[in-house]
Amino acid sequence: MGDPIHRQLRKAFGADVRSEAPLADSGAGIRISGIDLSQPLQTEQVNALFDALAQYRIMTLAGQDLDAFSAAHFERFANHWGAPLPHPSNFRRLGNTRYYEPELLPLEARPSTRVNAAFPDTLRCLPGADSPAVFVVTNVRDLRDEERQAGPKLVPSTTWHTDIEHHAIPLHVSMFLVHRAPVARDAPGGTWVPEWVPGPDDPQTDRYFEDSDPELLRLRRALPLNGETAYADTAAAFAALPAAEQARLSRIQVRRHSYNRNDQADFSPLVRTNPRSGIKSLHSPLWCPRPPTQIPIEIDGMSAQASRALLEEVEAHVLQPEFRYDHAHTPGDVTLWDLFMTIHVSPPMKENIQSLDDARLFYRISCKGEPALTLPRQDSSEWIGEHIFLEYTTPEEVIQAC
Ligand SMILES: [Fe+2]
Question: What residues pair up with 30 in beta bridges, in sequence order?
Fold first, then answer.
């Protein structure tokens, strides 16, 4: 407990607070227990948590009592970190594309309703999970007859990414509240899911462009098999670079397009400096986070081909094992990660599940804008109108919860 962050936490929350850090060999990760987030936080406590995340990039506040803690408490807590951004999974899709209309799905079509229909006698989403700000991250849903008959199937991971980095103000923190994590370990090798090796006819191979360097493809696909979230620490990766390379990357501005080709693209720096800790990191140093549908980013002053070559070189550096960390989830965990100092990927997953032992049910909230020591937040209506889908703000009754 000699670390200044540990001392600050004990001063703010009392001597019963315990913390363990770092969790990763890279220096990332802190796990804190003894903090009850169903209670409002004092200014000094919020400050201590801001400093802990600024230092450690990934932070778990373990042991929330899920009989008392709700997704509404979670959303109130999220308001300290930034304005919660409603998640597109709660919106209507435009036709068959991945573009979204900023219009909320009716409650019966929201992900939380589908979760509640899957195991109606034994599993319900926590109160508040149907908020537009809550992204229900899960493999739990009601199944059609043919899906039930076909049985569970393995779904490969998403690709390495940072959450919504292409807005004028990118998201800077995301957080999970863990309700259920899979406990089944019935795959060969004693893991939840078996290792996935893409075959030549596998439709999922298009998630990465196959003409990338084979070693880079191998690093991208080396993922955990028990439902952990995989992170790469872009702060440690930046710190490990030679000074000349750090200086070169620090001069780079990237143009990030949204999914919609007609939208204005914004320039943003590749290297960010955390305003609290002063730690420098690479913000989403990825040529194309979600190929092939998302438009690749470009480096100011470089061709598309040169942009790709440079960024895939940086990605191969960031994905080295010494910067990687697979985070295991436990029910009752609230886990935050700084989106400027990490990249992440969801793991291979079992879907069409019919046993609660396979259930992975998290609630995610992501935030943008300035942190707030006190609530309610004081964002202007103009700022909300410009930067937050649906002009959403957390309702007063949620901020006042309990
Ligand atoms: Fe993500």
Answer: 59
Q: Which residues contact 114 (CB under 8 A, 6 or more apart)?
A: 141, 142
The total number of structural domains that make up the chain = 1
Q: Any idea what the Cα angle at residue 90 is, between residues 129 and 72, rounded to 5°? A: 20
CA of 364 to the centre of ligand 1 (A): 9
Predicted pLDDT at 1 = 47
Q: How far is the CA of 126 from the centre of ligand 1 (A)?
A: 21
> At how many degrees (to 10) do helices 4-13 and 43-56 cross?
160
Domain region containing 199: 4-399
Q: Averaged over 308-317, what is the pLDDT?
A: 96
Please check whether residue 227 is in contact with residue 181, taking contact to mean a CB–CB distance below 8 angstroms.
Answer: yes
Q: Give me the CATH number covering residue 341.
A: 3.60.130.10
Backbone phi, psi, residue 134, to 5°:
-95, 125
**pLDDT beyond 90 at 402:** no
Is the model's pTM score more than 0.85?
yes
Kindly report, residue by residue over 192-248, the tens digit of the pLDDT: 999 876 666 665 555 788 788 999 999 998 999 999 999 999 999 999 999 999 999
Q: Separation of 137 CA from ligand 1 center, angstroms?
A: 10
What is the distance in A from the centroid of ligand 1 to the CA of 160?
A: 8
> Residue 198 has what pLDDT?
66
Q: Which residues surround ligand 1, an ion (CB under 5 A)?
A: 163
* Statement: residue 306 has pLDDT above 70: yes
